[in-house]
Amino acid sequence: MLLDRWKGGAFPLAFGLVAAALAAVPFFADLFLQTFLTEILVWALFAVSFDLIFGYTGLLSFGQALFFGLGGYAVAIPILKLGLGTGSGLLLSMAVPAAFAAFVGFFSVRLTGIHFVIITIIFALIGSTVAETWTSLTGGADGLVFMPPPLDLGVAKLDLMDIRTTYYLVLAIVALSWLFLRRMVRSPLGKVFVAIRENEERARLIGYDVRRYKLLAFVIAGGLSGLAGGLYVLSLKYASASFLHWSISGHAVVYTIVGGAGTLLGPVLGAVLVMSLEHYLVKMVEATDLVVGAVLVSTLLLAPMGIVGFLRGRSR
Amino acid sequence: MKEGKGKKVVRVMTGSEISRRDFLRTTAVGAAGLAVGSLPFAPFTYGAEKPIRIGMIQENTVGATVYGLWLTKAAKAAVAKLNAEGGIAGRKVELIDYDTKVNPAWASSMFKKLILEDKVDFTMGSVHSGVQMAVFPLAEQYKMPYIGGGAMAAGLTGKDAVAYYSRIHTHARMQAAAGWKWGFANLGRNWTFLVADYAWGHSLAEEFGSRIKAAGGKTQTILAPQNTSDFVPFLQKVDPSTTVLFTAFLGAPALGVMRQTVELGLHKRLQRYTVICCTDGVGQETVGKESAGAHYLSYYPRHASQVPKELQAYDKAYRKAVGMTDDGKDASNPKNTATVSHMWTMWTTPYMIKLAVEKSGWKDSRKNADFMTAFNTLKVKAGPWAPQGDLFMRENDHQGFHDHYLEEVRPDLSLKVIARVAKEKLVYDAPVDLRKKL
Q: Phi and psi dihedrals of B124, rounded to 5?
């Protein structure tokens, strides 16, 4: 019922309420909650970008970590080694991974099923190996520590050493990215993505250049994964080769499956649920990964379409 | 007993009668007596001041678990001893620890949790250089004193070191300074470095190699991925003229390269040499009897019998406190080997925090800069808190110096100390001056 209303026009109101509530957080929450929400927002953006290619286009990529990690380095290296500003770093965090996604996608989207999964893992492995061994540039497994200069917006300079400022910056970028993706999946382009997911052969027969559309989805998702990586690194002030490891892609996969693939809202809920469980159980259970595993198994068994899918099923 | 007006009488089983007021009074006094009697005798009066909280991050799951287990044991034992001796500046000490999962991103989250949610006063721990680097910006941002716990990358106290970080123990450059000369003089002049292809391996090959070459020796470096399981292709590249094979891997690959060196028979014509980091927490019996003859550079003798005589009394008490046998095994399960060369750092650090608090007059975070200055000018004498021997900190780069040992695997698979390297010989020019950055 609520979800139907959401579809039926209550979205601007609901989105406005959620955004207002999140914007109000720094006024009543402590610094830890603000920094924790910043992290959740970043990982939610990573998961949402994965949802575009998995949930809407039907491509299960374990290579998104490559773009996430590259996005991080695209922020850290120019600031640290070239003296560029934070704004340039953020733009590069989208542009560089998108360019790499175009290259990786050129080879990958020719494949389907398990072959696509494997080639994306291989590209991520190549990326993390290069990052680990090219220590003079990347700092390898030890990583790079940097202090971002204030973000110059023309009218104001944002000090990213301040937790509240970082939170608002991340909130604004994640909200805009989410709205952008929502608009896209509802456009004719998004319908083509879904058509490819549902029946690639039929989409091809009715005249769509399936490979080109898949490549487009891959590049957009790569750019947004990179932006998530860039924001993450900005919030940590640290970039590492470990962020390119293919297992990092697992975060996006888990959040999306738990929350509900092909919904855009699901990955956000999945990130909120899983990360909150991990953080608040850590004092009771050391092996929080087991808890995440249990949540994932339970979701797959009880609600295979994720939280959003489950709620939609009940509302019908 | 006289019954007053309105008084209710409690009839007890003995048949005598007492008033309700008497009954309540007697019960209350008895209960109070019991409660007081059941209170433990506190070693000191904690007073009204809140406890001092030390936050710790360790590798308790995923890789490097053995390090997390033992460094945590040492830290807990140290905090218990501190509290038994009166705490720090009369305040009780609490230890809050989180697992890093050997994941810099997760570790960074946990470090934030320690600072912002648990509101700790000091932080310490982790043997992973990447984890430590990941939390550096947080230590700087919140001016949070952070004392490392076993990570060996030289750069942590190098030119990019941060002001709120200190390391009381050795690192790759110091290890090279301690170990190259002995190896060059006693093992051979032609060295092959077969090391993990990442920062730590590169660092060891570079630090040892440059000294060997400068002394007129010959070197060859072979890099293999850290997770290598088949070392045969790499071992086949070893130059036939090599006299010393120096390997550096962690975990299973460290054992793999040692076993496969023996399987190929290289141990018969080469001297094997490495840093103890590769097999700290691993019994030589796990490597096999062929490990006899291999050499390690260590930072604390594994066996109590090999500890210098003047330190043996301290060592004995320390081993008992952390649950470690004279042979460096777990007292409750002798199959497990302790990370003897690393874990003392978490035993000594809480005590050094105490010394620095007392020296600086630290009461709360407003004096964190003074605390750091005090910590980094400490000279710790050998004693119950410093069983490894004298240790001193250098204020410029916040680096500590202590003695090192060269150990050889004997036929009975025990580790025998064959040389001790004094800390004074390991002092190098400070790559950075942090004194004005606090």
A: -160, 170
Are B88 and B79 in contact, with CB atoms under 8 Å apart?
no
DSSP letter for each residue of B364-410: SGGGHHHHHHHHTT-EEPSBTTBTT--EEEETTTTEEE--EEEEEE-
Q: How far apart are CA A252 and CA A61, in angstroms?
A: 10
Cβ of B197 within 8 Å of Cβ of A132? The answer is: yes
Q: Are B373 and B395 in contact (CB under 8 A)?
A: yes
The H or E element spanning position B333 is strand B333-337
Q: Which residues of B touch A (CB under 8 A)?
A: 60-61, 98-99, 101, 103-105, 108-110, 112-113, 116-117, 129-130, 133-134, 136-138, 140-141, 153, 155, 160, 162, 197-200, 202, 223, 225
Please tell me the predicted confidence (pLDDT) of residue B337: 93
Interchain proximity B160–A145, CB inside 8 Å:
yes
Residue tagged 């290579």 (tokens): A63
- pLDDT class of A142 with cuts at 50, 70, 90: confident
Minimum Cα–Cα distance from B196: chain A residue: A133
Q: Taking a C-beta distance cutoff of 8 angstroms, is the pair B116, A32 a contact?
A: yes
Residue B372 near residue B121, CB atoms below 8 Å: no
Element (H, E) at A151: strand A151-152
For range A178-189, the mean pLDDT = 95
Query: In the structure encoding, which two tokens stand for residue A67, read together?
Result: 């773009």
CB A242 within 8 A of CB B103: yes
Q: Are A85 and A55 in contact (CB under 8 A)?
A: no
Contact flag B137-A237 (C-beta cutoff 8 Å) = yes
Q: Which two tokens stand for residue B199?
A: 């920062």
Q: What does the mean pLDDT of chain A come to?
A: 91
Continuous segment of H or E residues that includes residue B123: strand B122-125
Tokens of B6: 């309105």
Q: What is the pLDDT of residues A109-130, one digit of tens each?
A: 999 889 999 999 999 999 998 9
DSSP lists the bridge partners of residue A238 as A145
Mean pLDDT value of segment A150-171: 92
DSSP conformation letters of A15-68? HHHHHHHHHHHHHHS-HHHHHHHHHHHHHHHHHHHHHIIIIIT----S-HHHHH
pLDDT on residue B37 = 43
Q: Under an 8 A CB cutoff, do A279 and B109 touch?
A: yes
- Alpha carbon of A175: minimum distance to chain B alpha carbons (Å): 22
User: CA distances (Å), A57 to each of A60, A191, A209, A217, A254, in order?
Assistant: 9, 9, 13, 7, 17
List CB contacts (< 8 A) between B148 and chain A: none
Q: What is the pLDDT of residues B35-79, one digit of tens each?
A: 444 444 444 555 558 999 999 999 988 777 889 999 999 999 999
List, as ranges, residues 142-161 from A with C-beta within 8 Å of B.
142-147, 161
Q: What's the CA gap between B114 and B253, in Å, rounded? A: 33
Q: What angle do CA A229, B147, B356 make, to 5 degrees?
A: 145
Going by their DSSP bridges, the two strands A238-239 and A144-145 should be labelled as antiparallel
Write out chain B residues lying below 8 Å of A286, CB-based.
Answer: 60-61, 99
Cβ <8 Å between B61 and A286: yes
Whole-number pLDDT of residue B3: 43
pLDDT in tens, B314-350: 999 999 999 999 999 999 999 899 999 999 999 999 9
**Contacts B199 to A, Cβ<8 Å:** 135, 139-142
Tokens, residue B298? 């260590």
